[in-house]
Automatic annotation (TrEMBL):
Compartment(s): Nucleus
CDD domains, per the entry: SF2_C_XPD
PANTHER family from the UniProt entry: ATP-DEPENDENT DNA HELICASE DDX11-RELATED (PTHR11472:SF41), DNA REPAIR DEAD HELICASE RAD3/XP-D SUBFAMILY MEMBER (PTHR11472)
Presence of the UniProt keyword ATP-binding in the record: yes
Alphabetized SUPFAM superfamilies for the sequence: P-loop containing nucleoside triphosphate hydrolases
Organism: Timspurckia oligopyrenoides
Entry keyword Cytoplasm: no
UniProt main location, coarse: nucleus
GO cellular component: nucleus
Entry protein name: Helicase ATP-binding domain-containing protein
Record keywords: ATP-binding, Helicase, Hydrolase, Iron, Iron-sulfur, Isomerase, Metal-binding, Nucleotide-binding, Nucleus
Length: 826
């Protein structure tokens, strides 16, 4: 089914039962109706609705209706079961229905209390909580407890058995909506919208964030990277659990331990653990989370006041059951992370991905694994020291597996070392080839990875390092790049990736690192598609949608090729709420001297062509008010252009018209953006001749996504050339090869166009940001005239696009467009 809605800017009479907080636009009603149908019937859908059209609110109201109806369905079914066979008056049936709903609520409450009572009794009976994987709380047997008290880093003689945590949500199999997005700011914005909807109070809504956003321990949250925050938190909790202080005393007093091998006194902070990690206070905060909708900032503020960690409280809240989860991509896309936080996908779950043009990359990132040589070598040294210390205390099987772990790492390290003879090259090979070249074929990597998970050896090695820092510092040259404390997890991730099916990925080796490159995101997304009722891809600009469909959704295995057709995906695209007269999109294929604008890679170094581009931009700047933003396909090309315009004096002419700003490679853009804004809004910031400013930016750079060039900040957005990826990039070559063998060579050429147009669409989406905005978009390259390229533009841009074959026509259109808007303002 394909639905297409044009320019629908009118208000509707009502929204049916969606309980929209305002009178919705007609387009919002149609969006919600179509989305609700998908949620109810199940399937996969693309829902494209431009920025500023109230997309988030439509998703929220629709999702709440889905939950509401699912809840009353469940009530009805229960009622049916208990129905009296004789005819009953309506008031009796309604009373019974309401009573049943109350009973269900009571039941949920009883369940919550039961969970809490269960946890209390477990903690009283001496059982101990420990963590596996990311942050999961699992119960280990008292023998584990003894083992840990003997020595917190020792795996012990016991062979560890995996205990799968049983989530209460498994039991409930309740209808749930899981909304995820890429950035923290998008998640915060979504929660703010949700708070505006009255009905959200009737559901358990849990915001899940990373420790970077939710940590309230100032000493930890002040650390620079998310990885550093995660590692520091894990270390604190490890130390809190294992009572290092008392162990230090025991071991240091032992006469057999030589002075050189005695533990350094643990740092004070480690001894104390984290003051916010109190089970009692976390339980109270988790109840607060479940009682009403909070955004992450509110949770952090409450966590600080109540001295409870909001990160673990939100996880605890999930354990007690939830209706609506708001989470970052990584928490949902990566199966082990999903398991660790207790996120259950079931046949009544609806999964909504916002900003969905990023999902393919996010799945690939979640399952790719990079291991730096410096981290690998550091991990080897630490594991060697660990083995020296605990060799005698390990069971034969554990000793065997720790040695295997070390052997595998050493062989991979040797292989990376062999690349030092070719420092500028990248070697790409299949997993099976790497295993053969590294002589790993006799190791059972599946068993090894199982041992790594179950024994929690990475955490133990990390804690070991913390105490034995002196012994390990010799391995690091202080003047060089330092290893990360996440080195053990990086090793674990890489070994895990070697167990992937051979065709799903490739290994890329340089003299500094080894990386598993995931080529088949569909293989991992399949488990999500198979588990849930509906998957919804939402975005302001999802085009080209085929990119997501082919890479993520379609099953290209031979047995499924026949079964799955394109029609099984629902597509809904809604027009912009701006009037058509507020957007002018032009394709410019010739410059002022009539020179054809061919910016293909082989042509674009031509100085005459570069000057022709300069003359185009100069003329556009003369007729465009306020801010003009010009996007180039790469930093290198922008630098070449800038240099040429300096020598041909085009830059000087441009500076007479608008103040010039540039996005610089690797530099922060904050100050520059402030200045740019100032030049547009303050007449003091420009000379008398100048009006406004022009900003040169790069597609794929910091300014092409996430920055709004609304109103005067971007009255005209120009894209110079087409940002095709480098076809010689070794990683891209592997992806293309994979596409050729799985999807077919027909799609591989299209794939390059899809990548290019995905970047263009995100860039031009910066221009119109709200209902009263107006702007012009100019695509400068004759290749934008091709139908195959124009078909990959969002429909609200494509439908009114004008191809100008004469430069004068472009300038006339532009001039008329801006004059009409200036006059309408007067
Ligand atoms: S327990 Fe919570 S507050 Fe403490 S360090 Fe970890 S994330 Fe931060």
């Amino acid at each position: 089914m394909n639905e297409r809605i044009g320019d629908v800017g009118s208000k509707s009479d009502g929204d049916g039962d969606f309980r929209f907080p305002f009178i919705p636009y007609e387009s919002q009603i149609l969006f919600m109706k179509s989305l609700y149908k998908l949620m109810n019937e199940g399937g996969v859908g693309f829902f494209e609705s431009p920025t500023g059209t109230g997309k988030s609110l439509s998703v929220i109201c629709c999702a709440l209706k889905y939950l509401r109806d699912a809840r009353s369905d469940s009530n009805r079914q229960d009622l049916e079961k208990n129905k009296n066979t004789e005819e009953e008056p309506d008031w009796i049936t309604n009373f019974a229905s309401n009573k049943l709903a109350e009973n269900l609520q009571d039941e949920r409450m009883r369940l919550k209390q039961k969970i809490q009572a269960k946890q209390r009794s477990k903690s009283q009976s001496g059982q101990k909580y420990t963590r596996i994987g990311e942050d999961d709380l699992v119960i280990v047997s008292s023998s584990d407890s003894e083992s840990d008290s003997e020595d917190s880093f020792n795996i012990g003689r016991r062979t560890v058995r995996w205990k799968k945590q049983k989530s209460e949500s498994d039991v409930l199999d309740r209808p749930t909506v899981i909304y995820c997005s890429r950035t923290h700011s998008q998640i915060v914005q979504f929660i703010h919208e949700m708070i505006r909807v009255e009905d959200s109070k009737n559901y358990s809504v849990v915001s899940v964030g990373g420790r970077r956003q939710m940590c309230v321990n100032e000493k930890v949250s002040a650390l620079r990277s998310a990885a550093a925050v995660n590692e520091r938190c894990s270390e604190l909790l490890e130390s809190q659990r294992s009572h290092i202080k008392s162990e230090d005393q025991k071991v240091n007093l032992h006469p057999d331990v030589p002075a050189s091998k005695r533990r350094k006194k643990a740092p004070k902070s480690s001894q104390k653990g984290c003051p916010y990690y109190s089970k009692k206070r976390i339980t109270v905060l988790s109840d607060t989370i479940r009682s009403e909708v909070h955004d992450i900032e509110e949770l952090v503020s409450i966590g600080k006041k109540t001295k409870a960690c909001p990160y673990f409280a939100s996880r605890k809240a999930m354990e007690s059951g939830y209706d609506f989860i708001v989470a970052p991509y990584a928490a949902v896309l990566h199966a082990p992370t999903r398991d660790s936080i207790g996120l259950v996908l079931n046949s009544k779950s609806v999964l909504v991905f916002d900003e969905a043009h990023n999902v393919v990359d996010a799945v690939n990132d979640a399952y790719s694994a990079e291991l730096r040589s410096i981290d690998l070598n550091y991990a080897i040294k630490a594991a060697t020291l660990y083995l020296e210390r605990y060799e005698m205390r390990l069971s034969a099987q554990n000793l065997f597996l720790v040695r295997q772990f070390l052997d595998v790492l050493a062989k991979i390290s040797k292989y990376i070392g062999s690349m030092s003879l070719f420092p500028d090259s990248k070697q790409v090979l299949k997993v099976s080839e790497l295993i053969f070249d590294c002589q790993l074929e006799n190791y059972n990597l599946f068993e090894l990875i199982r041992f790594i998970h179950e024994s929690n050896i990475c955490r133990k090695l990390l804690g070991f390092l913390d105490v034995y820092t002196d012994n390990c510092t010799e391995v690091v040259d202080a003047s060089q790049e330092q290893p990360s404390r996440g080195c053990f997890h990086a090793c674990e991730g890489f070994i895990q990736s070697l167990t992937a099916p051979v065709e799903d990925g490739r290994v890329v080796v340089t003299h500094e690192s080894i990386k598993f490159l995931m080529l088949n995101p569909a293989a991992h997304f399949k488990s999500i598609l198979d588990s849930v009722r509906a998957v919804v891809f939402v975005g302001g600009t999802l085009s080209p949608k085929q990119y997501i469909a082919e890479r993520l959704i379609r099953d290209h295995s031979s047995e499924c090729k026949e079964q799955k057709s394109r029609d099984s995906i629902v597509e809904f695209a809604c027009g912009h709420i701006i009037p058509k007269s507020n957007l002018l999109t032009l394709v410019l294929s010739k410059g002022p001297t009539g020179k054809r604008l061919d910016l293909s890679f082989s042509q674009r170094q031509d100085p005459e062509l570069i000057d022709e581009i300069g003359r185009c931009i100069l003329n556009v700047c003369r007729v465009s008010p306020a801010g003009v933003v010009v996007f180039f396909p790469s930093y290198t090309f922008e630098e070449t252009v800038h240099k040429q315009w300096e020598s041909s004096r085009i830059l000087a002419s441009l500076a007479n018209v608008k103040r010039i700003f540039r996005e610089k490679r690797g530099a922060s853009s904050d100050e520059m953006l402030k200045e740019y804004k100032n030049s547009i809004f303050s007449s003091d910031a420009t000379t008398q001749k100048q009006h406004g400013a022009v900003l040169f930016a790069v597609i794929g750079g910091k300014l092409s996504e996430g920055i709004n060039f609304s109103d005067d900040l971007g009255r005209c957005v120009m894209v110079v050339g087409m940002p095709f990826p480098n076809p010689r990039d070794p990683e891209l070559i592997q992806v293309i090869d994979h596409i050729k063998t799985t999807i077919g060579s027909g799609y591989s050429a299209q794939y390059m166009e899809d990548l290019c147009m995905k970047a263009v669409n995100q860039t031009i989406g910066r221009a119109i940001r709200h209902a009263k905005d107006y702007a012009s978009i100019i695509l400068l390259d004759h290749r934008y005239e091709r139908a195959s390229i124009q078909n990959k533009l969002p429909s609200w841009i494509r439908d009114d696009l004008i191809s100008t074959h004469q430069f004068g026509q472009c300038i006339r259109n532009l001039s008329t467009f801006f004059k009409s808007h200036t006059q309408s303002k007067l």
